[in-house]
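Reopening this one. Same input as before:
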Amino acid sequence: MDRSNKPPGDGTNENASGRRRPREEPAMTRYALILHGGAGARPERNYDREIDNMRAVVEAMKIRLEAGTPALDIAVEATVMLEDSGLYVAGRGASPNLAGAYELDASLMDGATRKAGAVAALQGFRNPVRAARAVMDHTPHVMLAGEGAALFAHDQGLEAIGDEAAWFTHAGKGEDNHPPGTAPDVLAGALAHGTVGCCVLDSAGRLAAATSTAGVFGKMPGRVGDTPIPGAGSWADGHVAVSATGQGEYFIRTAACAQVSWRVAAGAPLDDATRAVIAEIGELGGDGGLIALDHHGNIAHPFNSQGMKRAWLTTDGEIGVEVFG
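Same output, byte for byte:
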């Protein structure tokens, strides 16, 4: 029987000398972030504008994370900034499919709740990632596609595109990207199979991921790649947040983003897990890359294309930006 006068649960304990000391509180999670502007960069091309833009996005999101903004909100906000820049093959940077239509895809996932939202082949709206967020928040579904996605976006009051010719910038010209099974020199001036994405760990320990794309150059009308498919183009749970970029058919066939989580859950370090997935994609004949962040704040960004535009914020507050290497 405890005969001490110390009330239970008073927030103290005793050291070896018998002196009472305050109970140590668990350390607050330190936030981190990583984003990408797509794989397929070529060494002979100048990427100063993209580097400056990615750094600016990370700096803006660092302020938001310092203010305690949830990971899912940060992932959406960063992706919107990348979409609106017109520098990447997503959002404003899109090019038309073979029928001349602009079909955009996006998905996002909240690691804390495992909720997901996505749109595929969305036409007529500025930010597909906002539409994906609306699907998550305002429907019982995970994905809406085509005309149904556009009707839903209209009903949600999302911003429509007025003049497509004036809005879209056709980003990614001359990059080393091409549809599956097609050599890059077959399509003159081939555009990127580029994508943008963001993975976030917030100060509450929550993980989230978002991915957005206009798809591969020269795609068939209605073609849908990995980007709007949770598990292939994006993933977030209690272990990791992951976003993919590359030839989406291969990322679908390997469940690329979810596979990273499975490997980490089985004990693999994040870097080993992501590299193993990219190696598997390469063995199948595909190319691209992944960005990933785990619940400890570790980051990984492997790729097997010539380059991958990416930037990050570490748990120590350091910002990095790379295209090659």
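So the earlier flakiness isn't reproducible anymore. For the record, The CA atoms of residues 32 and 315 lie 5 Å apart.
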